[in-house]
Write the structure tokens for this entry.
Amino acid sequence: MAKRVLIATTGSLGDLHPYLAIGLELRSRGTTVTIATNNYYRTKVERTGLGFAPMGPHIPPVNSEAMQLAMDPKKGAEYLLRQIIYPGVPATYTEVMDAILRADIIVTHPLAYAAQIAAEKMGLPWISTVPTPTVFFSRYDPPVLAPYPFLTKLRPLGPGLNGLIMKLARATTRPWMAPITSFRASLGLAPGHDPVFEGQHSPQHVLALFSRVTAEPQPDWPPRTLITGFSFYDQIDHGQGLDPDLQRFLDSGPAPVVFTLGSAAVMQAGTFYKESLAAVRHLGCRAILLVGDNSIPESLPPGTAVFPYAPFSKILPHASLVVHPGGIGTTAQALVAGRPMLVVPYAFDQPDNAARVERLGVARVIRRKDYEARRLTAEIDRLLSDISYGAAALKISRRMAEEDGVRSACDAIDNHRK
């Protein structure tokens, strides 16, 4: 019988790309792979040659109202879970059950709760994944919580106090899981663990899809956790070379500052590009703005270019500095490219990712509300003039060159089903 793997994921492109990379490698090893995710990504998945299965929520990521609510640093996670993910679990479970009947093993994203429940109900081998250290909620390596960034000041006080903060976070989110508990009961399943915390992790195997440069294993991580390294997709995305105009721009002068909002925050750009352009005028540096579907109405400073998109693995090695909101995918690409960063976190894991690269000495962090031209000019000037940031970034890049996240993840999946 053919080996069949179902990979269930939900979210932005940053939540899809690592799993496409893993799926393509598994397919090259003779495995039949199906990606279960938002219908919005059907064409993208099918173009890779991987199988596609619909799995909600099916809200397009370009839905500006939903994205605005989800990207709110204080209430975004609650909105996403209580208004979108949890209420949709019964319908999503029905969808994913159709796909799971054709699988020998399932691999899940942290928010793919319905797929986790389906695997449990069917007794299917289940591997969970963690794309970012944030969601381990470790008291030994506490994350920066987007709604309460000030709590990071308590980090040095140790695991005792940090554990108390995690308990308070659990108390806050516990009422949220009522729809999950009710649905599990309707299936004859026990209430289970809190899906925000330990409930998202498989007791069989957990793959931490990030680099050891960002986090080391902690005593309170789930048993059988393996750090694989990052899984990069756009290095193997067919047809994702550099735009010829972009290549000509890169070849025509010194390394530019690259401004990007990744795949999620770009839907809620606000004044990011306006303030970025004003800072570029003050600095007189070359710059590239990756703007998605956002329009840039004003005239551009000399030496500035605007493009909707470019594969990070192709463009970031040519940058002098990367300005971005701290999504784990963009952060990983900047790290492996060996480029210093200015991080302006919006929500979710972004504040924690920002704090981690700041501690590595490769980045500085600016709050979103402080992202204005004068402050931005000073931060960029400091990062470009202080060689310690670039030196630290190159050192980290060399460490990451020894990792192969896709191979490690696929080896673990292959070994799990033997």
In short: The two ends are 13 Å apart (CA to CA). The CA atoms of residues 159 and 370 lie 31 Å apart. Residues 13-28 form the longest helix (16 residues). The chain is about 40% helix and 10% strand.
